[in-house]
């Protein structure tokens, strides 16, 4: 049973994140230390250095031979449900869009498992829950964040190339050159073939350390657990010195982003409520369906549902900022999600225990 002491431990784990966020916010809004261009540079530093090493560090320490594959299957089914619903919404609804489907997937499927999930679920269900939360984080880093990165890069590459335009010379009369064109000039938009676009995307992903940090980490986990040896101290120290700054610098970058916005709630009230519904209702509902479908029950089923209701992934905001896609929505989701997550998760715990 969770008590006030356990709640205090969660609060203690969360408050340092807000300290980093306030420092980032104040450095721009109050103290005017950084310019807009410098804020972008800091975000790129987080995206290309601290987050990849943070991802590698915790992925390399997991034991892949002791993972709960039914739990991973339930997670995959829940993500598949979300993807199908969003794809149908984008295709069939007049209000649906490809870009909002990407953001909605981040809001409903990607969680901040390590910071809040580990201390809270350990208090609720013990070490078994901690193992599942770490496994969820590893799978999210290896599969879902990599897919998100691919989709964002695909969108940016496609948009960048499709804006190229050529003007046919067939309508140019002798003596006419350049805006002089009038009447029946032909303008065509050049779009790359699917395979050419895929080649561009894969080349860009190959230069992005986020796309393979988790894969290298998992490969190391397989080798080290099979052969029973540890990472050399000099290598481990080099990784830890940067990876330990991952979450803090991500929150600092979010504070910078907030300070550059005109309003504290950067995306408005309606989008904030929309994000909260996706985060705390749609995500857990999809996970409940996936867990029941693979036959999970008891405490494992409860852990599945509660971990799906954890606050928004900080990494999803970093990617949204880097790729220019609804970063204001993701930043608000992270901040408000962290604020309301504790009462929401305790409420989930109480309801699930009552239904037992």
From TrEMBL:
Entry GO CC: endoplasmic reticulum; plasma membrane
Record field: transmembrane: 12-31, 43-62, 68-90, 97-120, 132-152, 201-223, 238-259, 271-294, 327-351
MF-aspect GO terms: auxin efflux transmembrane transporter activity
Membrane topology value: Multi-pass membrane protein
A GO BP annotation: auxin-activated signaling pathway
Annotated Pfam families: Mem_trans (PF03547)
Keywords tagged on the record: Auxin signaling pathway, Membrane, Transmembrane, Transmembrane helix, Transport
Subcellular location(s) per record: Membrane
InterPro entries, A to Z: Auxin_eff_plant, Auxin_Efflux_Carrier, Mem_transp_PIN-like
Family label: Belongs to the auxin efflux carrier (TC 2.A.69.1) family.
PANTHER family associated with the record: AUXIN EFFLUX CARRIER COMPONENT 1B-RELATED, AUXIN EFFLUX CARRIER COMPONENT 5
Function: May act as a component of the auxin efflux carrier.
Name used for this protein in its record: Auxin efflux carrier component
The organism of origin for this protein: Liquidambar formosana (Formosan gum)
């Amino acid at each position: 049973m969770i008590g006030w002491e356990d709640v205090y431990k969660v609060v203690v784990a969360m408050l340092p994140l807000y300290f980093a966020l306030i420092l980032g916010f104040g450095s721009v809004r109050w103290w005017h230390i950084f310019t807009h261009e410098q804020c972008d540079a800091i975000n790129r530093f987080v995206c290309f250095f601290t987050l990849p090493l943070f991802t590698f560090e915790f992925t390399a320490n997991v034991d892949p031979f002791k993972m709960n594959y039914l739990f991973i299957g339930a997670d995959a089914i829940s993500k598949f449900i979300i993807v199908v619903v969003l794809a149908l919404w984008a295709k069939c609804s007049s209000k649906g869009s490809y870009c909002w489907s990407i953001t909605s997937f981040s809001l409903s499927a990607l969680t901040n498992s390590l910071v809040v999930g580990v201390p809270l679920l350990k208090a609720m269900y013990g070490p078994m829950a901690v193992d599942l939360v770490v496994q969820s984080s590893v799978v999210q880093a290896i599969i879902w964040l990599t897919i998100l990165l691919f989709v964002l890069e695909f969108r940016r590459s496609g948009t960048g190339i499709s804006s190229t335009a050529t003007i046919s010379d067939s309508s140019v009369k002798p003596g006419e050159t350049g805006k002089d064109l009038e009447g029946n000039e032909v303008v065509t938009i050049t779009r790359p073939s699917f395979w050419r676009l895929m080649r561009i995307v894969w080349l860009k992903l190959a230069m992005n350390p986020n796309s393979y940090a988790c894969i290298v980490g998992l490969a190391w986990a397989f080798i080290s657990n099979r052969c029973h040896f540890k990472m050399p101290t000099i290598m481990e120290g080099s990784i830890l010195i940067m990876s330990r700054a991952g979450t803090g610098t991500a929150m600092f970058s979010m504070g910078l982003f907030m300070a550059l916005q005109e309003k504290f709630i950067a995306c408005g009230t309606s989008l904030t409520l929309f994000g909260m519904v996706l985060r705390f209702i749609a995500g857990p509902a999809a996970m409940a369906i996936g867990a029941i479908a693979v036959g999970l029950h008891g405490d494992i089923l409860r852990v599945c549902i509660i971990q799906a209701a954890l606050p928004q992934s900080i990494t999803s905001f970093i990617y949204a900022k880097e790729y220019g896609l609804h970063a204001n929505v993701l930043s608000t989701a992270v901040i408000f999600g962290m604020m309301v997550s504790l009462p929401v998760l305790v409420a989930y715990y109480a309801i699930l225990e009552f239904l037992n």
